[in-house]
Amino acid sequence: MWRKAKVMDQTAAGQGPDEEESTMRKVSIKKKSRVPGVMITQFVEEIPEGKSTPDFTRKPIAMTIQEGKLAFFKAVITGHPTPDVTWKRAKGDLLDPEKFRTKYDQKTGEYSLEIMTVRGEDADTYKCFALNEFGKAVCTATLNVIEVGFKRHKAKEETDSALNSNPAEFRKMLRTRAGVEKCEKKEETIDAKFWELLLSADRKDYERLCAEYGVTDFRWMLKKLNEMKKKKEEEQAKYIDYISNLKHIEVKGDGTASFELDLVLKDPSSRIFLYKDGDMIPFSEDMEMKHQLKQVGKKLVFTIKDLLPEDAGVYQVDVEDVNVFSTEFKIPTVDFLVKIKEVKAKEREDALFECVLSHPLPMIIWIGKNSVLEAGEKYEISVSEDKLVHRLLVRDCMQLDRGIYTAVAGIRSSSAWLVVDADTDPRMNGKKKVRKTTQAGGSGVDLEAVAQEQLAKLLKEKEETKWLKEKEEAKLLKEKTEAKWLNGMEEAKWLNGKEEAKWLNGMEEAKWLKEKMEPKWLGGNVEAKWLNGTEEAKWLNGKEEAKWLNGMEEAKWLNGMEEAKWLNGKEEAKWLNGKEEAKWLNGMEEAKWLNRNEEAKWLKKMGEARLLKEKEEAKLLKENKEAKQLKGKEEAKLLKEKVEAKWLREKEEAILLKEKEGARLIKEKEEANWLKGKEEAKLMKEKEEAKLLKGMEETTWLKGLEETTLLKEKEEAKLMKEEVKLLKGMEEPKLLKDKAEEKLLEKKETTRPSNGCQSTAPTFISASKYGLKSEKSESTDGLGSSRLNDSGSEDPEFGGCGPEDSGLAGIQDDSQFVEKESGSSGRSSADHQTRHAMDTSRGQPNLGGTEPVAVVVDGEQTMGDIKERQSPPPSHTEPGQRDQDRTESSAEVNSWNREGEMDKCPPLPATVSGEKGYQRASADQSLPGRTESSGGDSELNESPRCTRSKWGPQLLETVTDPGVYFTRGLSNVNITKGQSADLICKLSSDASDGTWYKDGKQLSPTDTLTITKDCSSHKLTIHNCQEEHAGKYCFEADGRKTEALIIVEDPPRFNPDDLEKFSGPVIVKAGQNATFKIPFLGQDPARVQWYREGVELLENPNIKLEKMANQSRLLLRKCQRKDTGEIKVKIKNEFGTAEAISRLIVLDKPSPPQGPVEVLESSATCIEIKWRPPKDNGGSSVMSYTLERQQIGRNTWKKLGDVEPVPRYKDTDVDHGRKYCYHIWAVNREGVSDMMETEDVMAGTKAFPGLPAAPKIVSAFKDCINLSWTPPTKTGGSRIVGYNLEKRKKGSNLWTPVNPAKEPIQEKTYAVGDVVAGMEYEFRVAAINLSGVGEPSLPSESVFARDPKKCPGKVSDLKVTDSTFAILSLSWSKPAVEEGVQDEAKGYFVEIRPGDSLAWERCNANPASLTFFTVKGLRSMAMYWVRVIATNEGGEGQPQDLDNYILAMPPTVRPKITRNLKTFMAVKAGNSVRVNINFVASPMPDVIWLKDNVPVTKRVTISNSEGTSQLFIPTSERSDSGLYTIIIRNLVGQETFSVEIRVTDDPKPPGVVELEEKVPGTVTVSWEPSPDEKRDDRLHYMVSRRDSSKKTWSTIADRLFNNKFTACNIMPGCEYHFRVYAKNDMGVSEPSDSPTWGTARKREKFVVSMPVYKAHDLRRAPSFLVPLKTHTAPPGYECYMSCAVGGNPAPRITWLRNNVSLNADANYYISNTCGVCSLLILRVGPHDTGEYTVMAENRLGRAHCSTWLTITD
């Protein structure tokens, strides 16, 4: 049976253990905790610094548990001072210490309530209270109990009640017992998880879940499910507007699991929680944590990454405390016995992937290229009958299908490649390839056999499990049968035995008592009347008398031991026979007893006290009412301020959004202007090119004229050269030279054109063209000069001056650099600065100014006319002007380079140097197409065009002034319509005037245009800009001009008055229409959008949107209360956005008052109830509440009238013992709300108060102990009139009253003076209400009656014993004890202070009793200060600090690899490579992976975690081979480790094998190398042999790195077969077989002839039949050398390396078999490199043979 405790209430205001104490406090401020379901009440207006109210950081969670188990609630509570924590339950008490146990764990800070051996009646709502002097916190949790079977205690109770009432009814109950048990059992045995999953499951899953949990009655299940769904929807309606598209959890292809749902919350601030199997789990919005919540619109997606078997369970999504979705995540215990393998298929062939699972699974997930594959025409997914073999068939493979395919089973996966080889048939080029019917792939293993073997294994395990289960069930059944039999025996005995006899005895005793008491009752008139009356007869003879006599409780009371003592004791006899008892039994005498003096006085005092208390309560009620009214006003004020703040914040956001939109539009306009400026620059460039073309034509004419002059000069130069040859002295050539130069100068002056390169000053012109002193030589400064061409004239490419020449010359004394003005030459001041810097770096003087410069002109130069050049100072050039000049310069230079001869004369700044009257010039810039260098010298020297000539005397030439230029140009202006715009430019001269133009038309000053000049600054101002003022403006002065654009913007905007009018709220009544209208200004087209609460409004029958010229209107028809909210209009055009905000308030009648109704008092004369105000007041405050009342059992309702707008009512017109029901309406200006009906409330029920909290020890002295306590949570429906206080000595069971029984304590504090000094006491308190005295509270803590102790001293020897990144362990010694100064410490507090904070944080809420402590939760590598404070009953002592701060880090450890690893790894190409390195290091080290001393590439994945690092290559290639090194480094040191990874593949077999006999008795085996020999340097060969007499093959040679081998011991007459294998690190190839080798034994005729013996000398000196060969081997491999030696007698063989004998070296294996000498090096190393020599010697001579061994890297 599923029993769920009913939540009685949620602890509203006034509930809890401090209900009465709240009357003593001034305020009661309700606060909301961060944890949902926790209510906090603050008792003071302001909390002192460092103090706080109690709060739950972890609240107790509702539990559902099976009967008989241990139930517990845990909570973590904070607050300073430390709050007192108590536990209560709604329908009972927690007094039984064996049943209910409360604990506190100091280490974890958890308060827990344990309920031992849970039973059905323990299902209830449990409350946890935390209280300190600043407030209280309350939280509730529900315990649901699943009852199992027919319980004995329940049967006993039902049997007793049946026997006492009617035996016939008992027999009926026995007949129907079996059916009742069956109905109850159906619901009890079902797991609670079943209903949680069923509520969120689809209908198609109902059958599966029922079969899984053993539910067979579907009709009953559906009926109960509908009831639970209805209840769940009601709970969800509090927080949820919409929920749908529930998708249960499933595993994704990326190794994660996720489930999702569509959810719309009523309050977006509502919190969402995730639970797994009832435990809350944290989650993040990104993938930083294991669990992630991602919200996209209304869709919520929960994701779990790094799946493990522990992740299986039931996941629940809760909004606040309401469950909205549950799903079960099942992880099958399955693994891959046979994984899928790589498949190589040809194009248009089918590919098959196969795998075998360890457990049956109906379906697995196939993933191809990161997407889930589904069965269809392309993919065929099949499963075997035993569900162990799964196959994926990829049909018609194409190149697009290649990639990685993955099989996912549960949380296990297997991946493999699909390689599709293209069809290389040339006949199919351009044709559609034919579909192949073949199939590639497969695992290569008999999967069916593997599956059958696994299936047999599973069946065997299943049978064993079934047998064990049946054995266990049989054992349980046997025990259950025995227990049932024993219980039946005991019940039979209990029914028929001693208890029945006692019950009969009780009947006899009751009769005897009746006979004894009747004479007394009949003695007086009053008694007789009372006995003879109708009521007395009914009492004696009726059913009530029978129940009273025969009831179970009365029988027990009469028959028990206490009853016997009560009947037989003297006190009982006196009580029965005494006058007071007789008076008590007789109503009349009881009245007399009440009228006695003392009783009268006591009642008078009680009445006075009651009146006084009622006055105080009325006063407090009035104060509370005023406080609530004041609080309501303050809350209204705060609400208004919040609304205004929200409106201001939204307005600021709107302004910010508007500014962002404006900035974006401005940026778009600037980009458009830039594009427009770029087009204009392009047009200007084309104009300049046209001008340059025109100038080039003029230059061509000038060039022709100059060429004519050059021819004449050439003839004269020849004549002068002939004259020079005749002269022999030095003076005569000089004279001739001077004459020639004068003559040449005269002719050049006459032939220079007026429109060429102008010059007004003489120029130094070289006379080297006459051949007097002109020669080519290497320039010592790296600069070249011009030279003569083949015709004798100067080649312009090497020193001539073209139209774009820099026009620079220099002299030795004042070499200066003048650059052409940017406006005319196209060069900017930036070029000037760059060249200036280059000249300075070469050691040249600073050149500048406008003074004349010397120009170097070669003797044959005809274009030596230099253009004048002047550069303005760089500081006065604006950036825009520089960019424009640079553009013009580049355009001009490019135009020159496009013409034939023009590109030979680039603009070259020149420097000049001289020596003994001769000048040298060099180009500072290379010719077109060359690279310029700041060093300059080396590159210029390498150029054939850079030469140097010795020159003769030069003439001086000056440069003219360039004129006026702009130092600041115009800039584009974007201006809003109606504002003023300014255009400003600056000239280099103050005296120059200019003219303004707009779109080519000259401008003059008007009312809207103002033209001003201030020195060199010229300004145009346009007032009140309109659309007609937009255009292109230009300013011209002295032939120079600058241009800019003015763009007039007209963004949307509002008139301030209209905006203020619109901002006011619009108030309408429900059902009326609301209109919003606002005019606006701005350029069309403008887009108008209306929003309500941030949601755009669209046209519908109730919403009408109108847009007119410069005005927009919104009409909302039939407004409802839910339409109340913010109304926003947004107007946007191409220039900007404007927003305006208003508010709509719809007035309506309030919603019904809210329950549940709280009964504040329920006595014989009064019922006081309290309810909550309406959730929605309808837009106006509640004016009053209307009530009516009905007495249960009647059909009429009584009007109680209207009450004040305080949700409280006190009904004094009630009858004792009657039940009443109330109807309540809320009233405002718009009408009356719907009715709320209360539950039935009884007047005058006799209910005792609950348990107060255990008394607290306020202070203790040797003669007095001060106590305080809190009132009980349950008052019993009436007020508390006082308390009784009791005490006992520690260890005693006898409680003695502290106050007299007739004088209850009125306050909640008391000073106990009757104590003995030095004794230890405990106290308890009981509350008293109008019904009587309630149960006493739990005992207080024990306290000694003695004076307070002194505070302890400081601890000593404080030190750190251990530390990690998050934990710090401390130890210390106890402080010393000094009599009268400092007492012994009872506990210790540990406090820490972070280095970035000044506040100390206490690590333990309760004092630690031991002298060591572990601080947890530190931040890694953070700095902390630590101190320890000793404490006892006298208070806290002085803190003891550590001498220095500490860092949260473990002790430093040098990096060290923890286990031995292999240094070599061979991997097959295509497989993955994984290298795991485990290490220890502290602090966390830096891990670096290198391959061949170079960082690894991106193909390699490196994964680092604490204590481990992994290198992973998903698909290896041969290029991945190499030496991989890991470097682990931290502050302490570093550790390195290297592993060699060789990626290779199965070797291919060698080629053709040939056999040859070079020495008798031997065969030389040779073969073609394997194709892998070039790719694998570790490839070697193995040779096997088999002769005709044997059937087995024997290896005769291995680890051969050459392609030959000589086999010995070849017997004639036998046939031999040889095989050659290729071997590498992966294995052995297929063999290559040789032809059969054999020599037939020749049989000749046997002729016996006596030989003629002749002395013959068979001795001969040693000789080498087969010499040694050169060997090359990689390190780590074997090396085998061999040769054949002949000689008689047999020579002695000696092996030498570098002339050192190796015969005695154990590292070399030397053999000599039949003259074949061999040397084997087992493991070649770098030290084995050298010359190897074989020396053979005998008595006749000596022979040598040498070779070299080379070791490869």
Report low-confidence residues grouped into runs of 5 or more.
Answer: 1-26, 149-153, 170-186, 517-595, 728-736, 747-957
Number of helices: 24
Q: Please estimate the helix content.
A: 10-25%
Through-space gap between termini: 80 Å
Mean pLDDT: 75
What's the shape?
extended
The main β sheet shows up as: 7 strands, mixed
Describe how the helices and strands are arranged:
Layout lengths: L1 E2 L25 E4 L5 E5 L9 E7 L4 E4 L4 E10 L3 E6 L10 E6 L4 E6 L8 E9 L2 E12 L5 H14 L1 H9 L1 H12 L3 H9 L5 H8 L4 H19 L3 E12 L5 E9 L6 E5 L2 E2 L10 E6 L2 E6 L8 E7 L2 E8 L6 E3 L4 E4 L3 E8 L7 E4 L2 E2 L6 E5 L5 E6 L8 E7 L2 E10 L17 E3 L5 H50 L1 H25 L2 H8 L1 H8 L1 H8 L1 H8 L1 H8 L1 H8 L1 H7 L1 H8 L2 H130 L4 H21 L24 E2 L18 H4 L22 H4 L3 H13 L37 H20 L11 E6 L2 E6 L13 H6 L5 E2 L16 E3 L4 E4 L4 E7 L7 E4 L2 E2 L6 E6 L2 E6 L8 E7 L2 E10 L6 H8 L2 E4 L4 E6 L7 E6 L2 E2 L6 E6 L2 E6 L8 E9 L2 E12 L6 E9 L4 E6 L11 E8 L6 E6 L4 E4 L7 E10 ...
Parallel strand pairs: 5-11, 21-28, 22-29, 35-42, 43-50, 78-85, 96-103
Antiparallel strand pairs: 1-11, 2-3, 3-11, 4-6, 6-9, 7-10, 8-9, 10-11, 12-13, 13-17, 14-15, 14-18, 16-17, 18-19, 20-22, 22-26, 23-24, 23-27, 25-26, 27-28, 30-33, 31-32, 34-36, 36-40, 37-38, 37-41, 39-40, 41-42, 44-48, 45-46, 45-49, 47-48, 49-50, 51-52, 52-55, 53-54, 53-56, 56-57, 56-58, 56-59, ...
Helix pairs in contact: 1-2, 7-8, 8-12, 10-11, 12-13, 13-14, 14-15, 15-16, 17-18, 17-22
